[in-house]
Amino acid sequence: QVQLQESGPGLVKPSETLSLTCTVSGGSIGSYYWSWIRQPPGKGLEWIGNIFFSGSTNSDPSLKSRVTISLDTSKNQFSLKLSSVTAADTAVYYCAREGRSNSGWFFDNWGQGTLVTVSS
Amino acid sequence: QSVLTQPPSVSGAPGQRVTISCTGSRLNIGAGYDVQWYQQLPGTAPKLLIYGNTNRPSGVPDRFSGSKSGTSASLAITGLQADDEADYYCQSYDSSLSGSRVFGGGTKLTVL
Known about the structure:
The complex is a heterodimer.
Chain A: E1 3-7, E2 11-12, E3 18-25, E4 33-39, E5 46-52, E6 57-59, E7 67-72, E8 77-82, E9 91-101, E10 104-110, E11 114-118
Parallel strand pairs in A: 2-11
Antiparallel strand pairs in A: 1-3, 3-8, 4-5, 4-9, 5-6, 7-8, 9-10, 9-11
Chain B: E1 9-12, E2 18-23, E3 36-40, E4 47-50, E5 64-69, E6 72-77, E7 86-94, E8 100-103, E9 107-111
Parallel strand pairs in B: 1-9
Antiparallel strand pairs in B: 2-6, 3-4, 3-7, 5-6, 7-8, 7-9
């Protein structure tokens, strides 16, 4: 069973860049999409973006200009950078693996999540 | 505002059957893209409950079932139990938003 673990600072100042890493264990990072998803306190899930093992990326249009997702296959890790953060970016951030269905994708393995607070 | 619309809350008594709806459009569910469902217990990460509209991952009880028709999908839970009390989210793909996976706003299930 693959396991995912997020890591990174829990507090980021406004206007700075949020940086998180997801370490994948128990399986290879190859042949899958790997996603970042966030959940503001008391609110619903929001997909941020993903990266394929080849390095190609997608992201939600509302965040696209601020999001960078990268992959380090040698370390079995992928990372998220979100620039110019504001208080609205305060959320629990999850990393997840995507599985493929006949006509779509689903998140079959999730990290436990890490709370990132944006505050001075 | 979420691309997929769910009722904010549903409730039912132990042993009853409840359904949670997920309404999309011709750009996502109506375009033929699969719908997934996730259960999120308080303070935990979401867990995949249904994928590909109707399929249950190993370990998910058959009390949980999914269906899809047109631009909508539904999650049904039969034999309601106290530990089913959680937030439930639907998820699909939207062709108008390049590469975008989209979620519903979530439904809080209360077991009375």
